[in-house]
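Project standup — Tuesday

K.O.: blocked on the structure for the chain from last sprint. Re-posting the sequence here as requested.
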Amino acid sequence: MKDLSQGRVLLVGAGPGDPGLLTVKALEAIQSAEVVVFDRLVSPEIMALIPEGVPRIDVGKSPKCHKLSQDEINALLIRLAGLGQRVVRLKGGDPLIFGRGSEEAAALRARGIPCDYIPGITAAQGASASTGVPLTHRGLATGVRYVTGHRARDAGLDLDWPSLASGDTTLVCYMSAMNIAEITFELMRHGLPATTPAMAVASATTPRETRLVSTLGGMAADIATHRPEAPVLFIIGQVVSLYGDVAGMAVPEGEARCYA
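H.V.: unblocked you, prediction finished:
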């Protein structure tokens, strides 16, 4: 009979999608899991690394469609760990960057269940590396800020727009496809020029990656036209002007946008 005291949850970052970008520790956790509870944004390539026969429980959320609420996910993790299982809670990117990992850890620890974090490369870093667009660059961006473009229960965005509308900072917007029109409008309303370069990267680091290069003023219309599939990350700032030079994929002269 299994010792129930050995139940444990590992909150594992699966990275942006490319299995080669997993940490060694994350791979070891996945391959030794007794049950995997995974999110929608974990790539098929990462899921393929789970050993055959290990139960997989899909708790992924998409806009206006949640298989389980966050409270129900917390309860599921508590129940599985209470059965003495080694549970891997697999999250796209990093569990502590818009991954609700800290909420789940708090619920587990409140019940006396041990849990640990295994970090992952967050989507912004993955998209930056795969496109060649740096998140900071001397003379263009002295800092970078990560923000969420979606709030729980579809609450309105209450971001600090005046501080975000900074020409010296790279802004990376997660989970923003549905609200990109509002985000770009507010940034322009608070002073960021409509000509500010912007890029949308879908499924970064995977074979399905697509890139949409535009401007702050044009991004909402371009996204409505091209409709890239999730996950989509937005990079806004002067660093995007380096896309053609750094990534080796030149933007056609005279065109404000391209889709590749």
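K.O.: great, moving the ticket to review. Confidence is low (pLDDT under 50) at residues 246-260. The chain has two domains: 4-118, 123-259.
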